[in-house]
């Protein structure tokens, strides 16, 4: 998890949200804030693949703060509980928060919403 540009308190809030989401859903959650190396989607998929054996049950949220873009990547088993349509809706809500300058609120909402939706589909 890399969270460039956050204060220590903000990073701690995001870590706590990730842990709560993992406990609630049984999935692995990760967040990366920064600039992509190469194409944004390809970079997010590489971050996800770097989780190795945990990737099938993982959800990675990549936020390119400078490029004002967001990618959510799910593993094979995670996708059964979090379809692309659910991720798109969550991403739209997150992007709305980001657009008004609320990066932390958007992240916390997104992590919680993804965990909630995955739990509802168990």
UniProtKB/TrEMBL annotation:
Keyword annotations of the record: Membrane, Transmembrane, Transmembrane helix
UniProt superkingdom: Bacteria
Database matches in Pfam families: DUF5130 (PF17174)
Transmembrane regions listed in the UniProt entry: 89-111
Name under which the protein is recorded: TLP18.3, Psb32 and MOLO-1 founding protein of phosphatase
Organism name: Nonomuraea jiangxiensis
